[in-house]
């Protein structure tokens, strides 16, 4: 097992310096591009792009508008991560070596997702967001398996990655629902309400799977659960207010939110007691 002291003693390579600079510059470009593309400085908001397919009222699985404020927290964490990983003394950190390129890839994919939606391609947005989810899952696995190094660096990395994964997990489900609705197959024989409940149950199961896998790394999995709980709760709130009302979906969303919130806490405490 590599410790902070042994990590610090490892030789710095030219690849480390290239990685640090590239991730820092790439993060700045990706975050700025995402902000401009999402309409933060004027222009068309995401909710109005692609014919409104991804608006807060497009499907029963669309989170209400306030849910998307979590992006400000995630972007802040990514910006801090980009700066921290670029510090000279962090060049040989084994966790940063393992995930920094993947984090940069996730930021570029997020910016690409916004561009694809602005171009009006809902099916393209599904492909991009599922690729983003796979990248974030890779980061998640690596952070769980590699021991913590410096406390501050590890917490910045873990909390940011956890929130990012949790939110994109919920957003992926909403994105798929939006595609199916825009393609005219949103009800798939069971009806929109029934399928929405099935998807919300799958989201709860995914939250439990994250919690079980990462039970020894609460710094990652608790933020993931919080972000999932946040997104699922806003789906429930969206179905109790506004034009798309559905009490059954709202109840299922609130139940899934509770599962996402509690599962990582329960598994982490259980793992700590066993240790």
From TrEMBL:
<feature type="transmembrane region" description="Helical">
    <location>
        <begin position="164"/>
        <end position="186"/>
    </location>
</feature>
<feature type="transmembrane region" description="Helical">
    <location>
        <begin position="249"/>
        <end position="271"/>
    </location>
</feature>
<protein>
    <submittedName>
        <fullName>Membrane protein</fullName>
    </submittedName>
</protein>
<dbReference type="InterPro" id="IPR038330">
    <property type="entry name" value="TspO/MBR-related_sf"/>
</dbReference>
<feature type="transmembrane region" description="Helical">
    <location>
        <begin position="122"/>
        <end position="144"/>
    </location>
</feature>
<keyword id="KW-0472">Membrane</keyword>
<feature type="transmembrane region" description="Helical">
    <location>
        <begin position="192"/>
        <end position="213"/>
    </location>
</feature>
<keyword id="KW-1133">Transmembrane helix</keyword>
<feature type="transmembrane region" description="Helical">
    <location>
        <begin position="21"/>
        <end position="47"/>
    </location>
</feature>
<feature type="transmembrane region" description="Helical">
    <location>
        <begin position="99"/>
        <end position="116"/>
    </location>
</feature>
<keyword id="KW-0812">Transmembrane</keyword>
<feature type="transmembrane region" description="Helical">
    <location>
        <begin position="67"/>
        <end position="87"/>
    </location>
</feature>
<feature type="transmembrane region" description="Helical">
    <location>
        <begin position="220"/>
        <end position="237"/>
    </location>
</feature>
């Amino acid at each position: 097992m590599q410790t902070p002291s042994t990590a610090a003693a490892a030789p710095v390579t030219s690849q480390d310096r290239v990685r640090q600079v590239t991730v820092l510059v790439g993060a700045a470009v990706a975050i700025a591009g995402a902000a401009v593309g999402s309409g933060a400085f004027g222009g068309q908001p995401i909710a109005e792009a692609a014919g409104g397919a991804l608006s807060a009222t497009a499907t029963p699985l669309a989170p209400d508008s306030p849910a998307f404020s979590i992006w400000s927290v995630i972007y802040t964490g990514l910006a801090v991560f980009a700066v921290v990983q670029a510090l000279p003394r962090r060049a040989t950190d084994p966790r940063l070596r393992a995930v920094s390129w993947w984090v940069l890839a996730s930021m570029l994919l997020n910016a690409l997702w916004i561009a694809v939606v602005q171009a009006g391609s809902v099916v393209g947005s599904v492909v991009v967001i599922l690729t983003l989810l796979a990248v974030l899952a890779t980061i998640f696995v690596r952070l769980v398996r590699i021991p913590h190094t410096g406390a501050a660096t590890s917490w910045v990395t873990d909390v940011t990655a956890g929130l990012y994964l949790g939110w994109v997990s919920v957003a992926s489900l909403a994105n798929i629902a939006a595609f199916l609705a825009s393609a005219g197959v949103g009800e798939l024989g069971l009806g929109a309400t029934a399928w929405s409940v099935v998807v919300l149950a799958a989201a709860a199961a995914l939250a439990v799977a994250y919690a079980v896998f990462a039970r020894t790394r609460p710094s990652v999995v608790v933020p993931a659960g919080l972000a999932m709980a946040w997104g699922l709760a806003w789906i429930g709130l969206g179905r109790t207010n506004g034009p798309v009302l559905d009490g059954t979906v709202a109840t299922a969303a609130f139940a899934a939110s509770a599962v996402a919130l509690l599962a990582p806490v329960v598994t982490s405490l259980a793992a700590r007691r066993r240790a």
